[in-house]
Amino acid sequence: MNPIENPQVLPASFFTGRPTTTIAADLLGKLLLYNSPAGQVGGYIVEAEAYLGTLDPGAHAFAGRHGKANDPLYGAPGTVYIYAIRGFYAFDVVTQAADEPQGILIRAIQPAIGEDLMLRNRPRGGFELTSGPGKLMQAFGIHDTAMNYQPLTESNLKICRDFAKTPATIQQGERIGVRIGKDWQDNFRYVVKGNPYVSKIRKRETDLENDGWLN
DNA sequence: CCGATGATGCGCT
DNA sequence: GCGCATCATCGGG
């Protein structure tokens, strides 16, 4: 796929007015773009996790936690929230109204645009290129939090309204790397079933025929 | 191939 | 100093 010049992007209203879990599932198949200084990169979202704010023990805003690092989470729906984790960076899109600190972690994409540039940014072959939140940001060449607070509608990071693919089956399960009490039922990870870029997928679970898409 | 383990940089949530 | 919404490597099967 060639670079896209002026894509229609998802409006802020996409990221509020319904549960964050629903929005996370709805993001699967959407085209994520980044107009980086070196060129455009992007791909289809194949994995996303919902974080449900102050009542969610796995969320950065659990129990009202609010500091400099997670302040973007308290912004308007569709705001960029990038945070550092163990020397890597990860990208969330903020959901729900301001001061309702929910968000969705974009965990993996299937490369579609600028794959050569992504490979230079992150020289790992095969599905390792973008099959995790830190890997994805490396492939995009994002190594800081400079885009924090930007609305996706006005950022070099964009999620397209058009060009979307349709998952054949959306699979739901436990979030990755979240250690919380056993009482909390964690079922907030959404993936395109069988897509080989989904993180931690087992080889035999992959659908290399259609990559888990209908189209 | 798959699960376990240690390295890692950043912000103190 | 420590905790962490991770990653790459190692070794058993």
Automatic annotation (TrEMBL):
- Which sequence ranges form a coiled-coil region, renumbered to this chain? none
Q: Which InterPro entries match?
A: Formyl_transferase-like_C_sf, MPG, MPG_sf
Q: What domain of life does the native source organism fall in?
A: Bacteria
Q: Does the keyword Hydrolase apply?
A: yes
- EC category name: hydrolase
Can you tell me which family this protein belongs to? Belongs to the DNA glycosylase MPG family.
- Entry keyword annotation includes Hydrolase: yes
Record Pfam families: Pur_DNA_glyco (PF02245)
Could you tell me the keywords of this UniProt record? DNA damage, DNA repair, Hydrolase
- Species this protein is from: Lapidilactobacillus mulanensis
Q: What is this protein called?
A: Putative 3-methyladenine DNA glycosylase
Q: Which Gene3D superfamilies match?
A: Methylpurine-DNA glycosylase (MPG)
Q: What is its EC number?
A: 3.2.2.-
